[in-house]
Design brief:
This protein is α+β, with helices and mostly antiparallel strands. The chain has 11 helices and 16 strands. Strands 5, 6, 9, 12, 13, 14, 15 and 16 form an 8-stranded antiparallel β-sheet that branches. Strands 1-2 form a two-stranded antiparallel sheet. The chain has a two-stranded parallel sheet with strand order 3-4.
Length: 550
């Protein structure tokens, strides 16, 4: 069965021009004309297909670790680079990449000076016009994740199987505290999407889940085996470590499950706030707590999805996934070892060496800092397949050697702090919290500094909605809005962004980029001349902490 919902578009339409949109006159961009869409009442399943891509051994872009955003023209004025490139006081954190200078200058290898992300400059207006709104709705209401998991479990596969039953349902796969209902021990958490690639208004929704190894889930006294209280306590300890907090709230737990006085009151009982201990609890009590580092065998599951639309045309997280990303920390390196590894990484960059990662076959690529990185992406028919090694290189730069990350991760350091942040991602009502050390909302600050609604300094809908006519940010309006209002697109834009990405999927040219632009990017270099490219003045370079002061 299908439910029918009529859309009455607003009379004043936002032009989807520039990098992210088009002014197509097709039936799906029809001004004030009524449109009628059918919304499926259940989810069809994507058919299975080839699980692995053909690996030719040829590499088109040897600097694929440099993402498209790094070629944005900052014009010696704007700074969208600060969210990745940062330097912090020596010894203050394990990440010592110390790359804030990349905010100021374009520092590329001889190969990297050429922007290989040619999809940024492709005009997809005609391809987008050929896709109807109904085709988009039918497509994003299809489950391709379950098909992938069934293939991984039934076909010859030597890598991890990142399975959560009914994950295509989003929040429906988890309880109110974020625990997967299937007993797989994956836990969802609520976090603020990083500016600005993962803002839905720029083309994708996503969710992230964490899983700690078995000993972190097992009690060590008053019984044995799985203990949810022990697991909740250790998750809270990990959070306190990563966010470098001395105390943190958590859902109520009974300290008698792990026989440790975590709130320091001298007795064991039900607690809702703990002090960060020196060691984890339960069967992980021999594992020391290290600030800003996860324990060994921590896993993350990240699904990148289309921009979903509900029947009321609100923005949601849909069933269909663009990508499934998985990370596992196979080796714990203490801070002194990481200092040496970051030193080697910086020297290799200075020497102009091209990136090189060890392939682990079906387990993905090894980033050299203790993490294995594996990704799946849509094939032309929409089923999920393993990424090629070059396609996976796209993930490696951000999850290896940029200065702003905490233990090579983004989302968990940005979790809503404490008990309130355990549960599936929900942007509704989320405040625009400032970054740690900041004084104004992060999104407000980003819009002012970046000079646009994405890293390419574009997104006309954001500009129309949150900027004044003189190009300044409407600070009062931005400050009054929640995160959902600030970073989700209109229904029209959501449909257009989905169509643009569907065109990329059909072309299967991800090695040329996967940003959902309809018309060619304007504020992006095709070729960078480091000798003549402008340098960002010092007063436009900023210290920034990805953690949030909730």
């Amino acid at each position: 069965m299908k439910a029918v919902f009529s859309i009455i578009p607003i009379l004043v339409m936002v032009s989807l021009s520039g990098c992210d949109g088009s002014n197509s006159n097709s039936d799906n961009q029809s001004g004030d004309q009524n449109l009628s869409l059918s919304f499926p009442s259940d989810y069809g399943k994507s058919p299975a297909g080839t699980l692995r891509p053909e690996e030719t051994g040829l590499v088109y872009n040897q600097e694929a670790i440099v993402p498209p955003q790094c070629y944005t023209r900052h014009e010696a004025l704007h700074n969208p680079c600060m969210t990745c490139h940062q330097s912090y006081a020596f010894g203050s954190r394990p990440n010592s990449m110390d790359d804030a200078a990349l905010q100021a200058e374009y520092s590329f290898s001889e190969i990297g000076v050429t922007n290989h992300w040619q999809n940024l400059f492709e005009d997809r207006s005609e391809a987008v016009a050929q896709i109807s709104d109904q085709e988009v709705i039918d497509y994003i209401y299809t489950d391709n994740y379950t098909t992938l998991i069934e293939q991984l479990q039934s076909e010859p596969w030597d890598g991890p199987v990142p399975a959560i039953e009914n994950l295509h349902l989003g929040a429906g796969a988890f309880d109110s505290q974020g625990f997967a209902l299937d007993g797989s021990h994956w836990v969802a958490f609520n976090y603020k999407p990083l500016p600005s690639t993962f803002w839905p208004t720029n083309g994708s929704t996503d969710d992230v889940m964490i899983r700690l190894p078995a000993k972190f889930r097992e009690q060590s006294c008053n019984g044995s085996g799985y203990s949810r209280d022990t697991y909740v306590a250790n998750l809270a300890i990990v959070e306190a470590a990563i966010q470098d907090l001395q105390q943190i709230s958590l859902p109520p737990v009974d300290e008698n499950s792990f026989c440790a006085d975590l709130n320091g009151d001298g007795q064991l009982g039900i607690v809702e706030e703990i002090q960060r201990p020196d060691f984890y609890v339960g069967n992980a009590s021999a594992v020391s707590v290290t600030p800003m580092l996860y324990p060994e065998e921590t896993e993350f599951l990240h699904t990148v999805r289309y921009v979903g639309l509900a029947e009321d045309m609100s923005i949601t997280i849909p069933a269909r996934m663009k990508e499934v990303r998985y990370m596992r920390k196979h080796t714990f390196y203490p801070a002194p070892a990481l200092l040496s590894q970051y030193g080697n990484e910086k020297q290799e960059k200075l020497d102009g060496n091209l990136p090189n990662f060890v392939s682990r076959g079906d387990s993905g690529l090894d980033n050299g800092f203790g993490w294995q990185v594996l990704g799946f992406i849509e094939a032309a028919d929409g089923h999920l397949r393993k990424q090629s090694e070059e396609e996976t290189l796209f993930c490696m730069g951000c999850h290896t050697s940029i200065g702003s990350t905490i233990d090579q991760t983004f989302a968990f350091p940005r979790k809503v702090t404490g008990a309130a942040g355990w549960g599936y991602i929900d942007l509704q009502g989320m405040p625009d919290a400032p970054n740690v050390g900041g004084t104004e909302g992060e999104i407000l600050n980003y819009l002012k500094i970046a000079g646009g609604g994405n890293e390419f300094r574009e997104n006309p809908e954001i500009m129309e909605k949150w900027f004044n006519e003189d190009g300044s940010v409407n600070e009062e309006k931005v400050s009054a809005a929640d995160v959902y209002a600030l970073i989700t697109p209109s229904a029209e834009r959501a449909l257009t962004l989905n169509k643009a990405y569907m065109a990329i999927v059909r072309d299967q040219d991800f090695i040329h980029g996967r940003d959902a632009n309809v018309t060619p990017a304007v504020n992006v270099y095709r070729q960078v001349d480091p000798e003549t490219a402008p340098v960002l003045p010092e007063d436009r370079q900023y210290s920034w902490d990805m953690r949030l002061a909730w």
